């Protein structure tokens, strides 16, 4: 993905170039230790000046690609999601079933549940429940749903989108292809 003066590598790291850093600073935003910059001449010069002016803590971290595959990186980091209690240990199936109002809804949740379990995606659902709760609590606007996610009734119950997949007879397999 390419943004103005920034790009996102295949591991999901935002990487700035000199133009992106200038834009970032001109918007009044701070440079943080998590930020990485391509080692352009401007970045190298900035870091050199930080050292010369006795402000080494302000240096930019120079970007280098991780030495692991994307798949290995994902596997290693998937369990590090921040999902606080009570969401981290909640019974997601019970939470979903509590929101069902008919036998049809219960059957759909149970059918989807099996598919989510087979794909080891229960933690994703747990994290989404926490995120949507946080969005609502903080008045944060999020997308109303589009694409294949609307085929999931569980995601509808969680509030990820506003499309009732049972009402529109959407097949869950469209989401989990």
Written account of the structure:
Helix content is 42%, strand content 7%. The longest helix is centred in the C-terminal third of the chain and has 17 residues, at 122-138. The protein folds into 2 domains: 2-70, no CATH class; 81-174, no CATH class. The protein contains 7 helices and 5 strands; from the N terminus they run E-E-E-H-E-H-E-H-H-H-H-H. It is an alpha/beta fold. A 5-stranded mixed beta sheet has the order 1-2-3-4-5.
Write the layout of secondary structure elements.
Blueprint: E1 2-3, E2 6-8, E3 14-16, H1 18-26, E4 36-37, H2 41-52, E5 61-62, H3 70-77, H4 92-98, H5 103-118, H6 122-138, H7 153-158
Parallel strand pairs: 3-4, 4-5
Antiparallel strand pairs: 1-2, 2-3
Features:
7 helices, 5 strands, alpha/beta, 2 domains
Strand order of the largest sheet: 1-2-3-4-5
Helix content: 40-55%
Overall number of domains: 2
Query: Main β-sheet: number of strands, strand sense, barrel status?
Result: 5 strands, mixed
* Beta-strand residue percentage: 5-15%
The shape is: elongated
The ordered string of helix (H) and strand (E) elements is EEEHEHEHHHHH
Q: Could you say which structural class the secondary elements and strand pairing correspond to?
A: alpha/beta
What is the total tally of β strands?
Answer: 5
Total helix count? 7
Segments where pLDDT lies below 50 for 5+ residues? Answer: none
Average pLDDT:
87
- CA-to-CA gap between the ends? 23 Å
Radius of gyration: 22 Å
């Amino acid at each position: 993905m390419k943004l103005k003066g920034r790009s996102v590598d295949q591991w999901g790291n935002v990487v700035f170039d000199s133009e992106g850093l200038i834009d970032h600073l001109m918007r009044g935003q701070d440079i943080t230790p998590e930020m990485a910059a391509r080692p352009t001449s401007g970045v190298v010069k900035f870091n050199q000046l930080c050292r010369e002016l006795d402000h080494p803590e302000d240096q930019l971290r120079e970007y280098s690609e991780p030495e692991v595959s994307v798949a290995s990186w994902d596997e290693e980091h998937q369990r590090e999601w921040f999902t606080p209690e009570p969401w981290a240990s909640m019974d997601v199936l019970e939470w979903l079933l509590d929101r069902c109002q008919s036998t049809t809804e219960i059957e759909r949740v149970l059918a989807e549940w099996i598919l989510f379990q087979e794909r080891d995606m229960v933690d994703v659902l747990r994290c989404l429940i926490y995120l949507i709760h946080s969005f609502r609590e903080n008045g944060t606007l999020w997308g109303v749903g589009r694409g294949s996610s609307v085929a999931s009734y569980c995601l509808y119950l969680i509030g990820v989108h506003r499309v009732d997949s049972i009402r529109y007879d959407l097949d869950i397999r469209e989401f989990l292809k």
